[in-house]
Design brief:
Elements (H helix, E strand, L loop, with lengths): L7 E4 L5 H12 L3 E5 L13 H12 L3 E5 L6 H15 L4 E4 L14 H28 L3 E6 L2 H4 L6 H21 L4 E8 L10 H9 L9 H12 L9 E6 L2 E5 L15 H6 L1 H4 L4
Parallel strand pairs: 1-2, 1-4, 2-3, 4-5, 5-6, 6-7
Antiparallel strand pairs: 7-8
Helix pairs in contact: 1-2, 1-8, 3-4, 4-6
Family: Belongs to the short-chain dehydrogenases/reductases (SDR) family.
InterPro entries: NAD(P)-bd_dom_sf, Peroxisomal_Beta-Oxidation, Sc_DH/Rdtase_CS, SDR_fam
Keywords: Oxidoreductase
């Protein structure tokens, strides 16, 4: 028996990299998988259902059940069509993994509005568009699991990724709020912050340096390993946990969360000078 026997799963951006690893593992664990991928380049240009179909073929060859989808996650029509295809094929949706994304990295002062809009549309609006119809169905039918893909670029920050970081921070905010709203309906919501060597990350400085030096990339940062963390979140192994963010990368597995400092609690209308005087209480150590 698999950990996901009979569960219907939608995975966006599943034609390559992490999404493909999720899809193939979930297929092995008994899930019925809708593999969505627009099939474009890393910046979102072009498109073909071929990448999604190739993953579907692998899942079927291994004895699993899967279908391919090439709809655009960044439109309401695309999100609805993804949901409708899963419902027409299997009649339910138990798990949604919002993984689709593009990169158009640039520093803020050089950045264009077109690239800003494109990245926000695919990542943040795309998460909204696909989740909306699935959420309503889960809300009315006993719950499910939704995993949204965020990033340390948004949660912590990274040079040259202002558009991407803003989108991923927005997804984190959406995730926290959905977890609160979904609890009473049995919908568990997670945030996944992955750090893997894939087509999307291969030319980022920290990954490129390892590749150029001939250093072996740790198995803990490989898509097949990170997929195990996704399996944990979506299966009964994680119980009723919700509203948490897992960071899974070559350094290992960790939880990320927003922290509050000890704080200073004045009993009067304070001044800017007093904030400076209580710096060590208000702020975390530098």
């Amino acid at each position: 028996m698999g950990l996901l026997d009979g569960k219907v799963t939608i995975i966006t951006g599943a034609g390559n990299g992490l999404g493909a690893a999720y899809a193939k593992l979930f297929g092995k664990e008994g899930a019925k998988v809708l593999v969505n991928d627009l099939g474009g380049a890393r910046d979102g240009s072009g498109g073909s259902i071929g990448a999604a179909q190739a993953v579907v073929d692998e899942i079927r060859a291994a004895g699993g059940e899967a279908i391919a989808n090439g709809d655009d996650v960044s439109t309401m029509e695309g999100g609805q069509s993804i949901f409708d295809q899963a419902m027409a094929e299997w009649g339910r949706v138990d798990i949604l993994i919002n993984n689709a994304g593009i990169l158009r990295d640039e520093t803020f002062h050089k950045g264009s509005e077109a690239n800003w809009d494109a990245v926000i549309k695919v990542h943040l609006k795309g998460t909204y568009c696909v989740t909306k119809p699935v959420w309503q169905w889960m809300r009315d039918n006993g719950g499910g699991v939704v995993v949204n893909t965020t990033s340390t670029s948004g949660l912590i920050g990274n040079f040259g990724q202002t558009n991407y970081g803003a989108a991923k921070a927005g997804i984190a905010g959406l995730t926290r709020n959905l977890a609160i709203e979904g609890r009473k309906y049995g919908i568990r919501v997670w945030g996944m912050s992955p750090g893997a060597l894939t087509r999307m990350t291969s030319d980022l400085p920290r990954y490129r340096e390892m590749t150029e030096s001939g250093e072996d990339f740790p198995v803990t940062g490989q898509p097949d390993t990170i997929a195990q963390a996704m399996l944990y979140m979506c299966s009964d192994l994680s119980g009723d946990q919700t509203g948490k963010f897992m960071h899974v990368a070559r350094q290992g597995v960790a939880e990320l969360k927003v922290m509050r400092s000890k704080g200073w609690e004045p009993t009067h209308a304070y001044t800017a000078q007093e904030i400076a005087d209580h710096y060590d209480e208000v702020f975390f150590p530098d």
